[in-house]
Amino acid sequence: MTLFPGGAPCPCGRKGCFEQYVSGTALRRRIEEAGLPYKPEELFTAEDPKAKQVIKEFTYDLAVVISSLQAAFDMEVVVIGGGVSEAADYWFDDLQEQLKPMLLNPIDVKVAELKNEAGMYGAAQLVL
Length: 128
Ligand SMILES: [Zn+2]
Fold this sequence. Notes:
two-stranded parallel ribbon, 5 helices, globular
């Protein structure tokens, strides 16, 4: 799904897809574009205002994605996995704060217990 029409190129062939803005890969790109010297795992503990701005933009875009998905699917729960979920302790409260005014009604947002391995376990379970 598109977050920013005409935005960052995506391997799917389109531009501006969610994946290009709210994933671990996207976070690495955002760090590079901001000219910051950090690895993604270092970004969250940096006392650099530019680092905090990158995190703020990331959580804002993630909130837009979740609220858009809610409008389409009216889900009750969102579970966030993938690489960025490993650092959720640093951005989850900010996400909740930004998400709250965007929601049609309250939903439960959680971090996947299996974090970055959630997708792998889910795929394996489908095969089994
Ligand atoms: Zn795409």
